[in-house]
Task: structure prediction
Amino acid sequence: MELYKYIIFLGLLLILIGFLLFIFNYNFYWFGNLYGDFKYESKNLNIYFPLTSMVLVSFFYFIIFNSCE
Result:
């Protein structure tokens, strides 16, 4: 397969995942609120850094892409 086909496929896959998360967001309320996801809220400033969530997503990507080989 050529590179542009992979990029189009990945884009469509991301759109599908985003749509499913939008529809079934009540099932994923815990995602982004894990222990280690840093939140700072003040009167004029909100900072959110989802460290644990990013590590979890990276781990699943690693497992999925290494199992495809």
About this structure: The longest helix spans residues 3-23. The chain has a mean pLDDT of 85. The chain has two domains: 1-29, 31-69. Strands lie at 37-41, 46-50.
